Amino acid sequence: MSELKPIFEFNKKSNIKQWHIVNDDVMGGLSMALMQLNIQGHGVFSGHVSLDNNGGFCLVRHDVERIPVNAFSAFVIRIKGDGKKYAFRCKSGEHQRHTYSYDFKSSKEWQTIEIPFNEMEAVFRGEELKLPNYHGDYLAQIAIIIKNGVEEDFTLEIESIKIR
């Protein structure tokens, strides 16, 4: 299937409160992040990753009402970043503890990144699990995380997240 189905498209009227920040403070870290809309109506995930107190990540997530995605095979994200590495993540169930993750490097120019479902690896708290890759049956959550093991500021502009 080559037709794109929107999961979330940012615009000036987007409800940014549908996106939730999870910083490493859940385990004592000091990283800080924000999710905002810019004047163009794009989502902007930005902040500072701190390694203090065993920290080291910032994540933004969006829960969706669980939908079947077995007619699709990839996520298509439209972003503009800062040249840093991020990971796109998803969950297939709202009570699932692990996520499926795919690393990508952002560019300072707009780019469209296609993420095949079958290349998303199962992870839990940053550790790879010995589970099959994302099978693409259901979708309940999407997220983006920065966790490069260095203290850094970051900014990632997001236009849309779709499935193909």
From TrEMBL:
SUPFAM superfamilies in the record: Galactose-binding domain-like (SSF49785)
Protein source organism: Maribacter spongiicola
Classification via Pfam families: CIA30 (PF08547)
Protein name: Complex I intermediate-associated protein 30 (CIA30)
PANTHER family, alphabetized: COMPLEX I INTERMEDIATE-ASSOCIATED PROTEIN 30 (PTHR13194), NAD(P)-BINDING ROSSMANN-FOLD SUPERFAMILY PROTEIN (PTHR13194:SF19)
Family that this chain belongs to: Belongs to the CIA30 family.
InterPro entries: Galactose-bd-like_sf (IPR008979), NADH-UbQ_OxRdtase-assoc_prot30 (IPR013857), NDUFAF1 (IPR039131)
Domain NADH:ubiquinone oxidoreductase intermediate-associated protein as annotated: residue spans: 8-158
